[in-house]
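Prompt: I keep going back and forth on a fold encoding question. Comparing notes only helps if you start from a blank page. Show me how you would write down a chain together with its backbone fold. Please set it down just below, with no commentary around it:
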Amino acid sequence: MPPTMLYPLIRKFFFALDAEKAHGIGLTGMSFLESAGMLGLLAKPVTACPVEVMGLTFPNPVGLAAGLDKNGEHIDALAGLGFGFIEIGTITPRPQEGNPKPRLFRIPEAQGIINRMGFNNAGVDQLLFNVRAAQFPKRGGILGINIGKNATTPMEKAADDYLICLDKVYNDASYITVNISSPNTKNLRELQKDEALDDLLAQLKQRQQKLADQHGKYVPMTLKIAPDLDDTQITAIADALRRHRFDGVIATNTTLSRDGVENLPNGNETGGLSGAPVFLRSTDVLRKLSGALAGEVPIIGVGGITRGEQAATKIEAGASLVQVYSGFIYGGPALIGEMADAAAAAIRRKSA
């Protein structure tokens, strides 16, 4: 049976289970198939289309967004599906349980997902143990590590948590993402505001330079932003990214909006909405951000991609690379190749 026919059957089984339980079983199953050399049952090879961004050469422009493999336990299995790069995390200095369960909800009618996970993770040290056990980074695979703050750390000390994580993951990451846009850690999005953002970026940039000197290598750093920003905020963030010479920006995280899902089962659960309903909002922020950055800082476009042509739309709106998470849950591994082909064609059109 071809992989494209197999995944809908698998999805039917998993969608009958609790969403978070299905998530764990699915990842464990993928790792089993990978170790047994049977991952080809799920995925076809993805066409190579090397793209250079942030000084790194990505084998294709499609990455896995953070959140799927928070602790980096399934890196090799996910890499075997054909992603051009993988981002793990969000990770915090200390392990934390996250928010009470249930905290992950599917909205199949809209191809959406709401989560209020709350940065549940095993802590940065455990993540590094897992990364060092994986083959993907050793083979030169591009691995992003997404960092955040612990829920119990006061906001005035938030920078300390980011700096702890930055110090620890620096030597093991291809790039590092600073997540200040999850809606599920109290007041975290306040860090996107002018003075708080300026202060955080300045501290991170200073530490990045120190670490580059210390390790003899420069590891790029990106900022992940929310889709719930007005034009003034987008311009202010673009100015801050340029001023602090950040290496990239990921647009966007999940939304607090409920447009398109408010009358559907699970549609009014608390948390961040991802998947198809966030596509237009996320792409609008991406387009405006691209205009404000004027090509000075590369953008990774993520949010709501469920079809190949939507990956191309993100590239046309100003992204250099794209990521997927919720669309992958609904569309399966076949979506990776579809996105890669469409994104690569869009990149060629842009450079023609």
